[in-house]
Amino acid sequence: MSPEGESSQTLSSSFAAQCSLDPKADSEVPSPPSKGKPSWSESDPGDPFLLLPWFAMEEVLLHLTDLLTLHHLCRASPAVADYLNNTPGIFPMVFERIVEHHNYVYDEEAEEYVQSPNFEAGVNSDTSIFYRMLVYLWWREESAANNVPADENPMPDTFYHEAMWSVNHSSTGWLDVAWLGRIKLPRSTPPKILRHLVTLAVRIRADAHAFFHETIALCKSCPIEWISDWDIKKAYWPKGGPRPRGVRSCTPESADYPPTWLEEQRLEQAFLKPYLFSVLRRVVCEKGLLKTTPPTLNPGLPSVTQRLLEEYPNTLQQLKDDSLLDFWRPFADESPENDANGNRRPRTIEPMEQLETVLTWMEDNKAKASKRRKQRVEFTRCCPNFGDLSPEQVKHGSFSLQFLFQPGCTFAQNCTAVPHSGVQAAGLRGEFHKFGVAFWDNERMMHLGLTTRRMDRWTDQKQLAFRWSGMLLLSKKKGIKISGRKKGWRFRSRTAPIP
Ligand SMILES: [Zn+2]
């Protein structure tokens, strides 16, 4: 959690390499060796897809379940890549089918809409908004660079159109605007740009899984010690006294199942935000492809624009200043309405915590960049299925990625139970980022021993303060470097345009 009003933190140049989308960087994704293999446009007699009639090809393409599979298929079959590149309208259609997501389905018997039991198909609405927004930005940029018309690109001419400007607000929040990224891709969306998007989606997936496996391994290497409730009540870690010894410890093997759909979506959104910010910044601030004069406040303005202007007057400035974190802060405003007791709900801070966590990870991984590039192949193939969701999660559905299922996400920052445990201070410094705690479902946190069923109880909070302090001991023992918000973020975004 970052306190409000903190001086703006910048995105930075070392980030450029990781954000770059130029063809050189594309080679980070496994690519077929160029020698001895035909290019996609040449026919390969060994390619079984070459034999398929067009309707069978479309049948296959329209039943793909994710962008990763589409990517692998394009790599493996020149005929598929060729078909996507050269058949008008098919690539946008395939993309829309893959990302399509249903929160609700109509229950014939009950005659009402109910939570979709199969919401793990497709992507969260914010993820698809990010993807399409990127497509429209790249498209605008490309058509300006090559001076070709892009009549069907729905991007407005001005940054101060609510559809543009609202991208840093979650579509699951209070704001109801026509996000640009809600507009489905038109038929004329250039296939070249969609190839780019698929490549990016695969890189993001690989980073998300690299992060997942690395942080879960770290959590598992930390045997969590327990203290009995009786001991906690009796005499427990007096101020100035030594840290008590746990009565037993468990290695949380059972926490090591693949990421759930919710966890993967959280991770992918967090990894997408720096990219989107960077591309937006280039198009708006560096290339000046959109008008940036704010409208003057007047009663004729649409009420949403009016409200955005009043409540978020600095969005453009944050973009200009490279203030990545400040720019994305409104995204956390998910639930401003009151709770059952009439109290205003606290701002949800999970998305900010998640963004800071991946930035910490990217910063820490800079030194290991070449290792990461090699590993990327591995992380485009791991975890063929999502981890299972609990019945409660299925019942709640996919309306929100956050909040209800993550009471442990910000446990440390709010931990007042044993002040001298150092857990709260460490949480505020971001020292638990490296364990990935901001992303995990409550079920996984329970397996890891980092949440309990009754976190509202004082004894549970003391118990958890003790357990979380065990992670700090592990960091100390392993000499894990704490980077983080003490130093501020030294990133600068500089993604490359599509050539
Ligand atoms: Zn994986």
Describe this structure as you would to a colleague.
By secondary structure, the protein is mostly helical. It folds into two domains: 10-25 and 124-337 and 345-387 and 400-491, no CATH class; 32-106 and 113-121, no CATH class. It is 44% helix and 4% strand. It contains 20 helices and six strands. The chain has a two-stranded parallel sheet. Strands 2-3 form a two-stranded antiparallel ribbon. α4 crosses α5, α7 crosses α9 (191-220) and α7 (125-146) packs parallel to α11. The longest helix has 30 residues, at 191-220. It starts with 9 loop residues before the first strand and ends in an 8-residue tail after the last strand. 41% of the residues are buried. Residues 209, 212-213, 258, 382-383 line the site of zinc ion.
